[in-house]
Specification:
Elements: H1 3-15, H2 18-25, H3 29-43, E1 48-51, E2 54-57, H4 59-83, E3 90-96, H5 101-115, E4 119-125, H6 128-136, E5 142-146, E6 154-169, E7 189-193, H7 198-208, E8 215-220, H8 223-231, E9 237-240, E10 251-254, E11 262-270, H9 277-294
Parallel strand pairs: 3-4, 3-5, 7-8
Antiparallel strand pairs: 1-2, 5-11, 6-9, 6-10, 6-11
Length: about 300
């Protein structure tokens, strides 16, 4: 039995198709199929039902799949641990949502390039659900996402609680107000992040709790687009405090009076995967950077 056979087994089980599994593993379909046959002969059980173009795990296959995943998991951890020598170049992959990556992770990567020259950092900007999945699958060493996170296979370390601020153009009438309530913005046109954004979801929940449904005129994939629309008075929006920058000269950030919305950010990591020295170094700087720049409490 060889490791590549176990990887082929997992690929077929997850894709449900020999052809797609072969593409994923960068091998020909006949070669992959033969390796699965060899594996079935070695373990003495049929692992897949071949149903036309579909491949469905047998009962024996489902049991063996769990073992195969555990074996591959341990091999991956062992390889990472053995290669994690202090004198070698280290590489990690980190993730963050769109309202965190430009304001927290990118500045930290710049800092790491000077403080940790042997550490190479790859980054992925994505939605929370996709980042959580990537951490579970080992595609990311860690990610910074808004809470809540409902996944028992990841550890959750809160790092920042921040207010969500009302954002308006500097020439908007609201910009001159000292107190803003939810009733004051009921008739305004809102500019929002896309419906898959956790920020958009949190804002919907907050307003829903106050029996208020904002009128959404624009939905944006990037914070920069949202800010440009707000600056031209196409509408108003709500952004986390971390997104407030010194060069936002055309924008005014205001706090809502009464019930102030906030959000919690956390670092998520796999509970069992080996944590490399590079990842630990990055985490240490991330905690320090967050505490220095945003007043977050120190965490262990």
């Amino acid at each position: 039995m060889e490791l590549h056979q176990l990887r082929y087994l997992v690929a077929v089980a997850e894709s449900g198709n020999f052809t797609r599994a072969a593409e994923r593993c960068n091998v020909t379909q006949p070669s992959l199929s033969q390796q699965i046959i060899n594996l079935e002969q070695e373990v003495g059980h049929k692992l897949f039902h071949r149903l036309g173009r579909k491949a469905v795990l047998t009962e024996a296959g489902a049991t063996f799949l769990q073992r195969a995943k555990r074996i591959l998991f341990e091999v991956e951890n062992a390889a990472k641990e053995l290669s994690d020598h202090p004198s070698l170049e280290r590489r990690i992959t980190v993730g963050a949502v769109q309202t965190v990556m430009p304001y927290l992770i990118i500045p930290l990567i710049a800092r790491c390039r000077e403080a940790l020259p042997n550490l190479t950092i790859d980054a992925r900007e994505d939605f929370r659900a996709d980042l959580v999945h990537a951490v579970v699958e080992g595609e990311l060493d860690l990610a910074v996402v808004p809470l809540p996170v409902d996944e028992h296979r990841v550890s959750i370390e809160p790092i920042l609680n921040e207010p969500l601020l009302l954002v308006v153009g500097k020439n908007h009438p609201i910009a001159r107000r000292t107190e803003i309530s939810i009733n004051d913005i009921a008739e305004e046109n809102f500019i929002s992040m896309g419906s898959s954004s956790t920020l958009a979801e949190q804002i919907r929940v907050f307003f829903g709790g106050h029996n208020f449904s904002p009128r959404i005129g624009y939905r944006c994939a990037q914070v920069r687009t949202l800010k440009l629309l707000v600056a031209m008075n196409a509408g108003i929006s709500i952004l986390p405090q971390i997104a407030r920058q010194e060069h936002d000269n055309d924008l005014v950030y205001l706090r809502l009076t009464g019930s102030q919305p906030t959000r919690d950010l956390a670092i998520i990591r796999h509970m069992q995967r080996y944590q490399s020295r590079g990842a630990e170094q990055f985490l240490r700087l991330l905690r320090e950077h967050t505490r220095e720049k945003h007043g977050a409490p120190a965490t262990a």
